[in-house]
Amino acid sequence: MMIEAADVIEQSLEQLVERAGDPTAAVYERLFAEFPETQERFWRDVSGAIKAEMLTMVFSCLTDPGGPFQLNLIRAERVNHDGFGTPHDVFNRFFWIVMETCRALLGQGWTPAFEVAWTTRIEEVLSATK
Fold it and tell me: Is the pLDDT of residue 2 over 80?
């Protein structure tokens, strides 16, 4: 199921880019609306590169299920974010915010298969990186 889910997530991302372009701004708008305290942590990200890199890492971790690198990256980033004062529930919630944003941007293009694949992978990744 993991490889299949990754393939389906890649399909959803391809459609997302075709229909809505880069989702970065929308993801962080949703994050800051839900957790306003997180916005101040991006004060030095004047170019948006940090936000884009974080989102790229999430996509990589969800679409490359075979690599222990991705799981170790999430574990390491969880520790790094502890240092920034980000609670684990907020760190975990970011993955769901990414999915919810992609779903909203795709609208009717979001399929039940996309929902299952994203949910499955996020649950697997978060469970494996506690």
Answer: no
Q: Where are the domains of the chain?
A: 2-37+47-128
DSSP state of 107: G
Q: CATH classification of 2-37+47-128 is 3.30.230, yes or no?
A: no
Which one-letter DSSP state was computed for residue 47? S
Compute the distance between CA of residue 25 and CA of residue 92 in angstroms, rounded to an integer. Answer: 19
Of residues 38 and 84, more confidence is placed in: 38
Q: Is the dihedral of CA 39, 118, 4, 111 positive or negative?
A: negative
Nearest to 27 by CA among 3, 48, 4: 48
Establish how many alpha carbons lie within 13 A of residue 30's alpha carbon, considering only the half-sphere containing its beta carbon. Answer: 19
Alpha helices in the chain (DSSP H): 2-20, 24-34, 49-63, 68-83, 88-106, 112-128
| CA 17 to each of CA 26, 56, 68, 127: distance values in angstroms, whole numbers, following the listed order | 13, 13, 27, 28
The pTM assigned to this predicted structure is 0.91
The pLDDT tens digits for 89-112 are: 899 999 999 999 999 999 999 999
